[in-house]
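To whoever picks this up:

The nightly regression suite flagged Cytochrome P450 as changed. Nothing in the input moved, so I suspect the structure step. Input below, exactly as stored in the fixture:
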Amino acid sequence: MGPFLHFMPGGSLHNINSTELTHKLYDIYGPIVRIDSMFSKDAIVLLYDAESAGIILRNENNMPIRISFKSLSYYRQKYKKSENDRTDRPTGLVSDHGELWKSFRSAVNPVLLQPKTIRLYSSALEEVATDMVERLRSLRDENNRIRGQFDQEMNLWSLESIGVVALGNRLNCFDSNLQDDSPVKRLIECVHQMFVLSNELDLKPSIWTYVSTPLFRKTMKMYEEQENLTKYFIKKALDDIKMNKSKSDDEKPVLEKLLDINEEYAYIMASDMLVAGVDTTSNTMSATLYLMAINQDKQQKLREEVMSKNGKRSYLRACIKEAMRILPVVSGNMRRTTKEYNILGYHIPENVDIAFAHQHLSMMEKYYPRPTEFIPERWLTNKSDPLYYGNAHPFANSPFGFGIRSCIGRRIAELEVETFLSKIVENFQVEWSGSSPRVEQTSINYFKGPFNFIFKDL
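Regenerated output under the current build:
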């Protein structure tokens, strides 16, 4: 489709949000849609077919190219690099590709993807979750609703959680005297603005690759502020590490473990964790709590498992998986093809950007029976049950991506949400009263207000 006229006033796609656009394109054009290049935006193919997604993702799994956050890549690779910088200097797992990315990823994988390694942070995350429960308790009004901005509270929890894992110390996000201009709140606002601004630059028509627009300059300034803030927290953590050399290898934070491998990687990875681990995890938590609140029978079943203290967390994990199927924080996955494909009767050449609409796929009846219903049992039932998740195509649902370019922080995010959700249902009966929340799609899906949660003491 030649897109320009469609998006103009009076056009069929004018002034609709990203979620509506995804659904409308499927309804009009079917399982494969090509949107031609527009201004500085490359052409992109949207794919709504799980089997086709699997073909491409499996064949692009050596050193896959995932084009995302182009403006952030530009900032790190060009805007901030001086003429004296090495050409082989890494900039991050999001912005790097090829051998440079492969070396970086191979070095950090053992630290960040080993379940046994991540489980070592369980007690620290439980301490954060306990403190957050007490904070929520103190923030309730006479109707057991949270005073203030609930999404901001979830951001404070997620930043505090990722801080203890990445840096090994508490960032004091729950300090009652925390000012709006404090480094903690400034970083949270920076992260939010990064996703919003990158959505404007990277996903919408713009001429910033040719002309330095006001939005471009604002975004570069935001990236710079984020970089300075993460350096501030990393420096504090390094000072603590120097003063506390007695920790065993098991007790070391991610930053210290990576310092033992490669100092450059350590700085970059710690910085990226503080950014990527805030809005994504907080919105996942909000969405999961909402689904638990409107499905009281599932919440009670989860509570019984948690309160039993028998160590089994199968239903807990099933609840989180089902929440990420219905309300994922990321709408899909991306690849740039490195070879030619024949997909659904269409020829896709090399060097084409493909977007896999996993959020759309995961809500299709043909993949998940009763897709709009919150049914954690589908992840636990046996193969003879029509609801059994294994009957769905493996590429219909992919909240953390696929293969060697999948989310490096998956294990950490899962542990954070498991720990906090357990503490919540152990202490509160979570209810919802009022209209449904809005979900705003930018670079990630934002779970927006009104936040009609009610937290009743058990």
